[in-house]
Amino acid sequence: MVERTPILNALTHLVMLSGLILLLLPLYVVFVASTHDFRTVNTVPLPLFPGDRMIENWTAVWNSAGFGPKMLNSLIMATGVTVGKIVLAALSAFSIVYFRYRLRMVFFWLIFITLMLPLEVRIVPTYAVAADVFRPLGATVNTVLDTIAGIRVAFPEWSLLNSHAGLILPLVATATGTFLYRQFFLTVPDELAEAAKMDGAGAFRFFRDVLIPLSRTNMAALATIMFVYAWNQYLWPLLIITDVANYGTATMQLQRLVPGPNFGEPPRWHTAMAGTLMVMLPPLLVVIFMQRWFVRGLVNTDR
Q1: Domain with 108 in it: what CATH number?
Q2: Is 264 helix (H, G, I), strand (E, B) or coil?
Q3: Model confidence at 302: pLDDT above 70
Q4: CA dihedral 162, 163, 169, 171 (to 10 degrees)
């Protein structure tokens, strides 16, 4: 137990205050830059206090840069990825914990190992699959059939490029979510499963009526993390989306705000910073409104 003294308390608060300043200072600079005009932002040094152009800059970004449809696409992507990750993680963890098949731990460790393979590492094979979903399966099946019977089967083409499905489906698998759900399911007393079985409940009913209500805080914590993760995705949408007008996301649109209208002109940092704040707002609101559930889901105080 750490002894509480006035000196230690003062030092602790000083460290926390220093960390808070380091965290908020860049955000304050972004906010100040978004409230000035083009000429003021490009002067050195940048003013320390906000200006009077905030509404004008936000309006210009929303209208001229087409941020409305881009924000909607980001919302569809983030919501779809979040829901998909939660459902897939819960089902996979349920299978690993409650079904006693022989290779379940092998499958779990194969899933867990993917934590060491971020999207950037597997971006090329993931893109190849998204470009033609049935091509890997067709190549494998045709190789086997050609070797055995000398025949080939024509598989249909299904491309996920330039679609909301392409933004969502390749990102829904999550080793983190599977691990969190597995650790929670292991803490559920076996008596609950036995009681449900005695009442005639099947596996899916036990999963739906018992495990899902018990894991609401875990679900909320995972949803918060995954929504922010999906909203901030830049590399994957940039790779698979060429029809930016219809399927571009807000993070993709940000990089289009920085260059000047003509070559050689100074960057338009005032509109870029306004767009940055606009993109930051949805995940920030999600974190604020989900904070209580997020903390409870991480520390498990209600179990």
Answers
A1: 1.10.3720.10
A2: coil
A3: no
A4: 50
